[in-house]
Specification:
The protein is an alpha+beta fold. It has two domains: about 60 residues, no CATH class; about 140 residues, no CATH class. It has seven helices and six strands. Strands 3-2-1-4-5-6 form a six-stranded antiparallel β-sheet. The longest helix has 22 residues.
């Protein structure tokens, strides 16, 4: 990592370590650095700023006695909901990985064979499976059962979706893993100032996908002003 990214990791790691002492899952600074290094990867300056904003909000939530249950090591398999939505003429799909019924990670992209992933309409659930490639790198596969009961695996989700969407989704997944309340995650996503029209369409879709996990009585300032269709 560059010196700037190392500084960012160290800065957030210190905050995470301090904040985690208020929970039942305290972290050492080294553990926090390892988690952050994995999450950050190769980020642009804009993405680094987003990480800092996300970190500030997440740590404030933890300190205010939210006491999240943090799972440092992701299970190899997670149950997954398939959420479909439409913004303008574009059809999108979100794969929401669940840990104990709570959103843990999210993968999103177009419903398209060439630039995304196209699933049968009958598919509403599945599994997101973490795999190791021969070169030691990780990949995430989506597995589902077709109407005949056969297991179908879509390999390499990161290769199926736009890299820009993938990087932002990784950051949002990092927040979900630290159990920031869903209504605050939605507000955070909504507040992102993004330049591209397509990435803003993606942003609206992420809000839609997460909104279905709001508990009874939970509300956001989310403004529903475009078509949607969800399946989960």
């Amino acid at each position: 990592m560059t010196e700037m990214k190392v500084t960012l990791v160290n800065r957030l790691a210190r905050r995470m370590t301090t904040a985690s002492q208020h929970t039942g899952n305290p972290l050492t600074e080294q553990q926090a650095q390892q988690l952050l290094s994995k999450m950050l990867g190769a980020l642009t300056a804009e993405e680094q700023q987003l990480v800092t904003t996300v970190g500030d909000i997440a740590m404030k939530e933890i300190i205010q006695n939210q006491r999240p249950e943090v799972t440092e090591i992701r299970p190899n398999e997670l149950e997954c909901d398939v959420v479909r939505f439409q913004n303008n003429k574009d059809k999108w799909v979100a794969l929401v990985g669940l840990l104990n019924g709570y959103p843990y990670e999210i993968f999103t992209g177009l419903q398209d064979d060439e630039e995304g992933i196209l699933l049968p309409k009958s598919v509403t659930k599945g599994k997101i499976i973490k795999q190791m490639n021969p070169d030691g790198s990780k990949r995430y596969d989506f597995q589902f059962e077709n109407t005949r009961g056969y297991k179908i695996t879509v390999e390499g989700l990161s290769e199926k979706f736009n890299p820009e969407y993938w990087n932002y989704a990784k950051l949002i997944s990092g927040v979900l893993r630290y159990r920031m309340p869903i209504e605050h995650v939605i507000k955070l996503v909504s507040s992102l100032q993004l330049q591209s029209e397509s990435i803003n369409t993606w942003k609206n879709g992420v809000e839609r996908a997460l909104k279905k996990y709001l508990g009874d009585g939970e509300e956001t300032e989310y403004d529903d002003n475009s078509e949607s269709h969800t399946s989960a």
